[in-house]
Design brief:
By secondary structure, this protein is of the alpha/beta class. The chain is 40% helix and 13% strand. It has 18 helices and 14 strands. The chain has a six-stranded parallel sheet with strand order 3-2-1-4-5-6, sandwiched between helices. Strands 11-10-9-12-13-14 form a six-stranded parallel sheet. Strands 7-8 form a two-stranded parallel sheet. Helix 9 crosses helix 10, helix 9 packs parallel to helix 12 and helix 12 crosses helix 13. The longest helix has 32 residues. The N and C termini lie far apart (49 Å). The protein binds uridine-5'-diphosphate-xylopyranose. Uridine-5'-diphosphate-xylopyranose binds next to helix 9. The site of uridine-5'-diphosphate-xylopyranose has 20 residues, from helix 9.
């Protein structure tokens, strides 16, 4: 099929490349010439494992081109909208300007029979509104995307589910989407057909649930800190309950990134507009628990340094909002680094992939090329993003370069016993006191 993809960010670039892999003739459109130039040369404009390989070699019968000129989308029969819907400045409401602009630019190139498919995360009701204002014979469906950064290629080519939101008389739209995703359907990926509103809500509801799960773990972590428990061991007991499961129960610095924080705020804002604000007012608490994770990590670092961070050198390992990404949007690690600097600490941040973006976002902080350089002369080392290379650090070698061997493990990422054996004072979120040596549990997850 001939397909166009509008917006070539984390979502659109991967979607375009994946559709080419699935055998389609794809043109990706973006307003950013530098991004289009990189993609056209087969270079990923951001760090996303597997994307460069997919761009270089979509494989199969598909083809992949990129352009800033939306007229190139005119040849396509199906047009995917993948632009960003960030949080509006000063409120939780989603900013739909990019979406409106992309659709307005595409409009003259639509013709009877064209199908527009929204993938961007939008407030419920947006699709129905957009559908009423399309040229004659043009139909609209909503097909939310659930990919995780860092796993975007695999999540797109092997999704847990496909959701098609279509109007009542949308059989032809379903057929068209089935043709786009034929190979995934052949692989047995479940496909759920809903109305437009349910499809829009499918995305925000899933993200709100995940954020709530993370904040639940961090809420019990606060209780453990006060009561003398160990939250990591506690969630280990919960994770073995098959009804709960262990995913998104990590005790630590909490969630960030381009989706979860803004999605829960937009969901709550839209619910208030609809007169059902109280139904999701708990999401304000989910947000507040998440923010407190950073404050509690500052307290751990301050306490480790004897009560004040003023003039102390702090090495922050990690700037990305999570490992395997260079994205620093709403990054808990970068927020923590800023909060430490606000207490007068001399903060040096490092990250394997996100250094350039971190430096652009927070130029007031110090930066180092790697963990060893960041930790040199440090009074305390704070592990803020759980990259494998930080989990695997040699605590003995690092102890040789720091001023004082103190570690705040804000992601519960390292083997504390190993670091203590190398002479480190290790403090973690959710654990009242250093974990004593104790008999091994028989379950590996406990
Ligand atoms: C998320 C959703 O997972 C995805 O389905 C949706 O389409 C987009 O939003 P992403 O933003 O890439 O994807 O991040 P994700 O991997 O879900 O992690 C979100 C944040 O939660 C990260 O900051 C991560 O560090 C944090 N997290 C995750 C925790 O703090 N604890 C956990 O147990 C899991």
């Amino acid at each position: 099929m001939r397909v166009s993809v509008h917006g070539c960010g984390y979502l659109g670039a991967v979607h375009a490349a994946a559709l080419a892999r699935l055998g389609h003739e794809v043109v990706g459109i973006d307003v950013d010439p530098a991004r289009v130039a990189a993609l056209a040369e087969g270079r990923a404009p951001f760090f996303e494992p597997g994307l460069a390989a997919l761009l270089a070699e979509p494989g199969g019968a598909g083809s992949l081109t990129f352009s800033t000129d939306v007229a190139h989308a005119g040849v396509a029969d199906v047009h995917f909208l993948c632009v960003g819907t960030p949080q509006s400045a000063g409120s939780g409401v989603a900013d739909l300007q990019q979406l409106e602009a992309a659709l307005a630019a595409l409009r003259p190139h639509l013709r009877p029979g064209s199908v527009v498919v929204g993938k961007s995360t939008v407030p419920v009701g947006t699709a129905a509104r957009l559908a009423t204002d399309l040229p004659d014979g043009v139909r609209l469906a909503w097909n939310p995307e659930f990919l995780r950064e860092g796993h975007a290629v695999a999540d797109t080519l092997h999704p847990d589910r496909l959701v098609y939101g279509v109007p009542d008389d949308g059989d032809a739209l379903v057929e068209r989407l089935d043709a786009v995703y034929a190979r995934l359907l052949d692989d047995g990926v479940p496909r759920l057909v809903t109305d437009l509103a349910t499809a829009e809500l499918a995305k925000v509801a899933a993200n709100a649930f995940l954020a709530t799960k993370i904040s639940f773990a961090n809420a019990v972590a606060e209780v453990c800190e006060a009561a003398g428990g160990d939250a990591v061991a506690l969630v280990g007991t919960m994770a073995l309950d098959r009804r709960i499961g262990g995913e998104y129960l990590g005790v630590g610095l909490g969630f960030g990134g381009g989706c979860l924080p803004k999605d829960i705020r937009a969901f709550a804002a839209r619910a208030r507009e609809l007169g059902v604000g109280p139904a999701v007012s708990f999401l304000d608490e989910v947000d507040a628990i998440n923010d407190r994770c950073r404050e509690r990590a500052v307290v751990l670092a301050r306490t480790a340094c004897g009560g004040s961070l003023a003039g102390r050198r702090v090495a922050v390992l990690g700037a990305a909002f999570k490992p395997d990404s260079d994205d620093v949007r709403s990054s808990p690690a970068l927020a923590l680094a800023r909060a430490l600097a606000a207490e007068g600490a001399d903060v040096v941040v490092t990250d394997p992939q996100a250094l350039a973006l971190a430096q652009a976002a927070a130029p007031e902080l110090g930066y180092a090329a790697d963990a060893r350089e960041a930790a040199t002369g440090a009074d305390v080392v704070v592990l803020a993003t759980e990259w494998d290379e930080y989990r695997d650090l040699d605590p003995g070698a690092l102890a040789d370069v720091v001023r004082s061997p103190r570690l705040v493990d804000a992601r519960n990422a390292v083997d504390g016993a190993r670091w203590r054996a190398a002479g480190w004072d290790v403090r973690s979120l959710g654990v009242a006191a250093p974990r004593a040596a104790r008999p091994q549990s028989s379950s590996p997850t406990a």
